[in-house]
Amino acid sequence: MFLAFCGPHPKSKIECGYPLHAPEAYFPYFRKHNVTTIVRLNKKIYDARRFSDAGFDHIDMFFIDGSTPSDSILLRFLEIAENSKGAIAIHCKAGLGRTGTLIGAYMMKHYKFTAAEAIAWIRVCRPGSIIGPQQNYMQEKQAWLWMQGDLYRAKQKERMRSERPDYSGILIAVDDMCINDMDNCDRCNDDDDFDKGGYRNQIRYGDEYCGSSCHITQGDRLNQLKLQRKHLKSATTGSMMMEEVKPHKRSGSQPVRELASRSAQTSVMSPVKSSKVQGSMSANNTSVAALSSKRALRQVAGTASSIKR
């Protein structure tokens, strides 16, 4: 960004109704708009150290008022403008002729303005700029400035290509890479569990084959990893064997009643039930013995009474 302004004076004052400003009057505005460099094109009226002490870069490129810059001055200005960290404030005595000529040259080089377009745009922004022989100078330098702009852009592209990181090596490395989480599996599982099914020998690094005569692609390796994880999950959670899931069938030669009788014969009673059964059997035996003894006494009593009669 460029800022064209009238040349500062040693002291701020009003002369013939026109205000003149000292360098310190511009400091707040320059800092607010990130102005870092001041270019002076006229003779020395103020001390440049007043800008330098305030933290600005000050550069002198004097050429006569109303004239055109030399090639060395033009090239130096373009180089300063291209390498400046911030905005550039340019002034001559009035900030119109010499100032507008250098700014227009930069626009023609970097934006391919024609001489007429650059003059018109600068006059819209700052009326009265680029007057007299400076207009012819702009037309004469148009083709040369365009060529300098093409060379500058070509150098910039070449520099960006050289600074851009080379991804070819990374792409080759990715093409040769094989997904393998063997280290993670070894940390979580024992070697004995991991060796089941021969999964350890199925995945290899590089371009080796994985358990078959054909070349294994990246998708095949991913499928093998999924199978490997399923195998490890079933081994840790404890899956049922196929023999346990099979239903048991009854042979046709054995009838149902025979099986029921065999199961009844072979059934075993619990200790509690057996004790209850034994107790009930002993009680029944006792009651039978008591009844038989009573009957015997009755018979004896009956015989005795018959004898007395």
Automatic annotation (TrEMBL):
Residues 75-137 form the Tyrosine specific protein phosphatases domain. This is protein-tyrosine-phosphatase. Keywords: Hydrolase, Protein phosphatase. It is an enzyme of class 3 (hydrolase). GO terms for molecular function: protein tyrosine phosphatase activity. It comes from Ridgeia piscesae (Tubeworm). Residues 235-309 are annotated as: Disordered. Pfam families: DSPc.
